[in-house]
């Protein structure tokens, strides 16, 4: 098993970094899924074609990390059907995640595609790197969060502007969960039982998905 990389919770001093740790807690933990955002294309089971980033290079590194907070499923994804994964950094708990080392412009382009915008503009990260949070809009993934730094580079992700208990939870689809859980498993820090138990306990999945049901998705028997 791979060792978890600890996150230094202090905000990085460099407000204009060339590279960042794009930290995914949803389906982009899976490199095949992430490749659609970086290189363009349509992932298996998805209903959307992605244009890709201006720089199509895959991450220089991908490492397992844990974020403070909670992951939950809400709203309705037109790409997968069912609920999307969101992150509440103010909630109690831990979030299993995967940090991808990408360029700052790649992070901007991934975020733009999540926001259904054209991936053609750099993001000003000074606000989020100074305050730890920056709300760019009211959309689902238009709130940036900096969880700290690893090796001097910021740990960045995006989520919704609301809190976990402010929205109705929605069960995720099998296709979405398969990518999410497989991405976690391939990170190498958690075994099948740990991944299945964690995902099944997340709000939105809990009561609709069992650990065995998630394990079956990964084994191809569901």
Summarize the structure.
The protein has 222 residues and is of the alpha+beta class.
Overall mean pLDDT stands at 95
Radius of gyration: 16 Å
User: Runs with pLDDT <50, length 5+?
Assistant: none
The coarse silhouette is: globular
How much helix, percentage-wise, in residues? 25-40%
Structural class: alpha+beta
Profile the largest sheet.
6 strands, mixed
- By DSSP, the count of extended strands is 8
Q: Count of helices?
A: 6
End-to-end distance? 26 Å
List the secondary-structure elements in sequence, H or E: EHEEEEHHEEEHHH
Percent strand: 15-25%
Strands ordered across the widest β-sheet = 2-5-1-8-7-6
Question: Which helices and strands occur, and which strands form pairs?
Answer:
Blueprint: E1 19-24, H1 31-39, E2 62-68, E3 70-74, E4 84-88, E5 94-103, H2 104-114, H3 126-131, E6 133-135, E7 143-150, E8 153-159, H4 174-186, H5 192-201, H6 211-219
Helix pairs in contact: 4-5, 5-6
Characterise this structure.
By secondary structure, the chain is of the alpha+beta class. The chain contains six helices and eight strands; from the N terminus they run βαββββααβββααα. It has helices at residues 31-39, 104-114, 126-131, 174-186, 192-201, 211-219; strands at 19-24, 62-68, 70-74, 84-88, 94-103, 133-135, 143-150, 153-159. The chain has a six-stranded mixed sheet. A two-stranded antiparallel ribbon has the order 3-4. Helix 4 (174-186) packs across helix 5 (192-201) and helix 5 crosses helix 6. The protein is globular and about 45 Å long. It starts with 18 loop residues before the first strand and ends with a helix. The model has no long low-confidence stretch (mean pLDDT 95).
């Amino acid at each position: 098993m791979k060792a978890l990389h600890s996150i230094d919770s202090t905000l990085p001093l460099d407000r204009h970094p060339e590279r960042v740790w794009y930290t995914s807690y949803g389906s982009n933990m899976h490199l095949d899924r992430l490749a659609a955002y970086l290189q363009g294309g349509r992932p298996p089971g998805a209903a959307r074609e992605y244009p890709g980033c201006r720089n199509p290079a895959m991450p220089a590194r991908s490492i397992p990390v844990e974020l403070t907070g909670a992951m939950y499923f809400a709203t309705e994804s037109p790409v997968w059907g069912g609920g999307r994964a969101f992150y509440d950094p103010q909630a109690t708990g831990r979030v299993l995640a995967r940090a991808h080392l990408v360029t700052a412009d790649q992070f901007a382009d991934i975020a733009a595609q999540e926001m259904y915008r054209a991936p053609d503009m750099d993001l000003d990260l000074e606000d989020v790197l100074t305050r730890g949070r920056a709300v760019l809009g009211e959309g689902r993934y238009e709130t940036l969060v900096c969880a700290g730094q690893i090796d001097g580079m910021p740990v960045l992700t995006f989520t919704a502007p609301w809190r976990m208990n402010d929205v109705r939870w929605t069960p995720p689809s099998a296709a979405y969960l398969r990518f999410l859980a497989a991405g976690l498993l391939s990170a190498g820090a958690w075994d099948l039982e740990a991944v299945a138990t964690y995902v099944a306990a997340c709000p939105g999945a809990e009561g609709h998905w069992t650990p065995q049901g998630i394990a079956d998705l990964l084994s191809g028997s569901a």
